[in-house]
Design brief:
The protein is α+β, with helices and mostly antiparallel strands. The chain has a domain at 22-99: Orthogonal Bundle (Arc Repressor Mutant, subunit A), CATH 1.10.10.10. Helices cover 27% and strands 17% of the residues. It has helices at 22-28, 35-45, 54-63, 70-82, and strands at residues 51-53, 87-92, 95-99, 107-110, 115-118, 144-147.
């Protein structure tokens, strides 16, 4: 696995922006700190590590009176992901969540609540990973454990 350069203010175990200067962090990731990017970065990273969908971030932006379209939210989330500031978690072909913790870890997807939460560290041991095809390397292994409430199953 190849290490990517970390944006300014990043920790070694994943990008954690915290109280660092968002403008410098965006510049360090190769992104221009526009007003909309700054406002969305503040909404994303001010609450610590979390998982958010584009739709949820759009709701938060509207509540915060940030004038932004859903298309801009999607574009910004993908730009932040490409820059290493977020990690995309595709729970199925129609749903993607974005994780502010970009370090190696796995997830639970809670069916019915449409929520993603982290699996506790060291709770999953991934073994016997196959060799990648010639000319390829494994960049990451993602485990998503789907769970549902016992009261909803019959």
């Amino acid at each position: 696995m190849e290490d990517r350069p970390k944006p300014a203010g990043a920790a070694t175990d994943g990008v954690r922006i915290g109280s660092t200067d968002l403008s410098a962090t965006l510049r360090g990731a190769g992104l221009r700190p526009t007003r909309q990017r700054m406002a969305l970065a503040e909404l994303l990273f001010a609450k610590g590590d979390r998982h958010v969908s584009a739709e949820r971030l759009y709701e938060e932006a509207r509540e915060a009176k940030v004038p932004v379209s859903l298309a801009t939210i999607y574009n910004t989330l993908h730009q932040f992901t490409d820059a290493g500031l977020l990690r995309a978690i595709a729970v199925d072909s129609a749903r993607t969540y974005f994780d502010t913790n970009t370090g190696d870890h796995h997830h639970f997807f809670i069916e019915g609540k449409e929520e993603v939460i982290d699996v506790p560290d060291d709770a999953i041991k991934v073994e016997n990973i196959p060799q990648p095809p010639d000319g390829m390397e494994i960049s990451r292994v993602d485990v998503i454990v789907r769970v549902r409430s016992l009261t909803n199953s019959s």
